[in-house]
Amino acid sequence: MGPLDAYVPYLLNRAGARIATAFGEEVRPLGASLQMWRVLAALRERDGRRMGDLSVMTSIEVSTLTRLVDQMEKKRLVERRRDPDDARVVALHVTTAGKRLTRRIVPIAERYEQVALKGFAPVEVQVLRAALRRLYANMDELYD
Amino acid sequence: MGPLDAYVPYLLNRAGARIATAFGEEVRPLGASLQMWRVLAALRERDGRRMGDLSVMTSIEVSTLTRLVDQMEKKRLVERRRDPDDARVVALHVTTAGKRLTRRIVPIAERYEQVALKGFAPVEVQVLRAALRRLYANMDELYD
DNA sequence: GCATTTTATTTGTAAATGCAAATAAACGAC
DNA sequence: GTCGTTTATTTGCATTTACAAATAAAATGC
Question: What share of chain A is helix, strand, coil (3-state, %, to 5)?
Answer without folding.
Answer: 70, 10, 20
